[in-house]
Amino acid sequence: MSKYIQVPESTLKTLSIGFYVPGVDLRSYDPSRLLGSDEIWEQIAGLFLACESGDFSALRRIPAIMKGSDAYLVWRAVTNLAGLASTFGFVKDVFEPFEKDGSGSEYFMATALGLTLDRDAIRMLLTLHNDASDEETRYQIERELSYLLEDINGPISRGADESIESEDRDTVHIINRERYFLKVEDALSLMLGQLPGPNTPILGGKVFDVIKLARQLLERVASAAPEIGRIHRHRLIFEAATGVNCAAFFDSPVKLNSLQATAILETFLDSDDVRRFAPGQRYFFGHPLGA
Questions:
Q1: Any long-range contacts for 159-167 (C-beta under 8 Å, 24+ apart)?
Q2: Would you say the pTM of this structure is higher than 0.90?
Q3: Which of 125, 175, 128 lies closest to 149 in space, CA to CA?
Q4: Helices (DSSP H) in 174-249: which residue ranges?
Q5: 161 vs 285: CA distance, rounded Å
Q6: How far, CA to CA in Å, does 28 sit from each of 1, 34, 44, 50, 129?
Q7: What is the dihedral of CA 185, 187, 189, 191, to 10 degrees?
Q8: For residues 283 and 239, is the Cβ–Cβ distance under 8 A?
Q9: CA 176 to CA 37: how far, in whole Å?
Q10: What is the pLDDT of residues 75-108, one digit of tens each?
């Protein structure tokens, strides 16, 4: 661009749920200029554009962005990017400075771990669950475990059994982690026996496959009773892997536009782009990750 035009912060906040900003051609902006901005959302946009071009070194800026803001949407945006565009090891390193500092980072770390599609994330999620003191973090961990190990909402998504016990005047909240962890371990063992190698990405208890994900999404959006949470997650993974604009999947966070979603997925599946994606390989906007 010959002249730098600031992108409205309110517009860029949509980067917390996807990688396309309505009414803004982000690709007309210089990533390095955005990364050098004083505005945190422009920095996030610069991070995304750098990764879209294959420059994943920019992700090293994520901890500084997190330290500079406690806004939920900021953390959500960089958490999604960390999980979808990097590795299990990188996510661990990003969140290490925030461990047990009272920032609530465990909730976001769980999301980032789940988005790596790495089987090693499962045991770390169990560790986070064991240490979780608030129910929102615990429920998010259970969702992530389900996304990795279950094809549909099942026993893992339903979470650990909870009960309330009274001791004298004190009320004790009991979480039956032992029984829940056994369910997770059983599902993990079953899945591991089916994987071709130690570094194979996973989703829904199976080898991750972009094309199969697109076909599965096509079935889900046409369902009479779609699992909205799972569609949100799969849409995000599909958009990140392929670069296909999926913003039109939803008219609102809870209102699926099945016609638009179907058209987007069918167009992709009918295109030559399907040849670019191999089973057992993660991608970010078509760039192979960990290859």
A1: 160/129
A2: yes
A3: 125
A4: 177-192, 210-221, 228-242
A5: 39
A6: 7, 11, 15, 13, 42
A7: -150
A8: no
A9: 48
A10: 999 999 999 999 999 999 999 999 877 778 999 9
